[in-house]
Amino acid sequence: MERLSHPLYPIYLCLVEALGLGIIALSWYLLYRQGTGFEWVLLAVLAVLSGSLTVKIPGINSKVSVADAFIFANIVLYGPAVGAITAILDGLMVPNKSKSFKRKLNYKLFNVGVMALSAFLGGQAFSLLYGRVSPHVGPLPTLNQLFPPLIILATVYYLVNTGCVAAIVALEANKHVYEIWRDRFRWIAINYYTAALISGLLAFDRSSITPMVLACIGFILLVVHLSERGYVKKFAETLKNCAP
Q1: CATH number of the domain where residue 157 is located
Q2: 123-126 contact pairs (CB < 8 A, 24+)
């Protein structure tokens, strides 16, 4: 017998979608008002391109990507608005195999909403703790000054992102949110903290963003990606063996 979704499922879905659309509008407005240039576009393009390096989380329709490093870099270098737009662009590229057009549209809007919320709130937390929007507004920071805000950025982004997805999965399946989060998302935290540290190194000296540096970062992200794939494979086998 098919389990019915929780009554709050459609309400929560619409709420996240509406918040995402609101953040899109606010981010473009902030970009226009602040007169932000187009230097951030390179990192946004890299985020979209690297989004193809994904690892599917077993048991649910969700994936983890190495693109977060470039999303974080744009948050740290150019502020929450740019980070949110970068995250949204990455979210739009996530494929969906749903057959129903309505379900595809809801999936896309929800994914964009989650990405926008994660990046914008993470960026706001970073700016609040750091004391200004970007390390390049004012004197250059030291790594010691950047480290605590980077950890907060990664933590807020990780918890909002995984929490929102775990909630929609739990509501659709009528299960406990924490149970879903603990079993499916707890182990991917390393992806976000690695991404935050990489973005911090880029922010420490923007002139260091050379092809060689980007190639080294790409190699590090590839290693993280392959490690995650290995873990997911073992996790999927465990689930299979535990299934009744």
Answers
A1: 1.10.1760.20
A2: 123/75, 123/79, 123/80, 123/81, 123/83, 123/84, 123/153, 124/80, 125/149, 125/152, 125/153, 125/156, 126/75, 126/76, 126/80, 126/150, 126/152, 126/153
